[in-house]
Amino acid sequence: MSVVDLLEAWPLPGARALGAQLVASYAHPERGYHDSRHLAEVLERVNELCAAGERFERMPVVLAAWFHDSVYDGQPDAERRSAAWAAEALPTLVEPAVVDEVVRLVLLTEHHRPAAGDANGGVLSDADLAILAAPAERYGEYVAAVRREWAHVSDPDFASGRASILGDLLAKPHLFSTRHGQEHWESAARVNVAAELVRLAG
């Protein structure tokens, strides 16, 4: 999606200024992977899961997708700071229950471990992790972009931290929570992640 397309996808037409602020945040030149392309891909995967018949509350999930990496600077607590932005910006725009759910969902993306039966969490987590199932070329671009975001970290420390995150994901019974994700993304994602772990260990 172009910037114009992203703005068209913003779900609160009465608050276009907020949408523009979020687009500008994702488009910051110092971002690597967590940029406008990532936001667009997550929104596309949410749409894909909806089209596949997954049942979830669309407005809070879409808003959470917009906010989930709204703050990303290679420093700790980015998810909490992103959730705080949502908590500050949304109360005059949507119902309190929607605000609370958006905040909860953004915080969930720190570890991607939605509880069983958490339909909203499962959809957002799966949409965010779907990059793990990308074709080899796109997966390679993703890995390189993540490394650029953490350029301030030494190679050994980055490899150790990245391997810990990937190993934790692989230890889950399923990387994906939705039926569609498990059927269409699980196998490819496990192959990609396992191969990256081998490269990190080398």
Could you describe the 3D structure shown?
The chain is mainly α. It has a single domain (3-201), classed as Hypothetical protein af1432 (Orthogonal Bundle), CATH 1.10.3210.10. It contains 11 helices and no strands. Helix 4 crosses helix 6, helix 4 packs parallel to helix 7 and helix 9 (155-170) runs antiparallel to helix 11 (186-201). The longest helix is centred in the N-terminal third of the chain and has 16 residues, at 36-51. The radius of gyration is 16 Å and the shape is globular.
Task: Chart the SSEs and their pairings.
Blueprint lengths: L2 H7 L6 H11 L9 H16 L6 H10 L10 H12 L6 H13 L10 H11 L6 H14 L5 H16 L8 H6 L1 H16 L1
Helix pairs in contact: 3-4, 3-7, 4-6, 4-7, 5-6, 9-11
Structure in a nutshell:
It contains 11 helices and no strands. Helix content is 65%, strand content 0%.
Task: Provide key terms for this protein.
single chain; 202 residues; mainly alpha; Hypothetical protein af1432
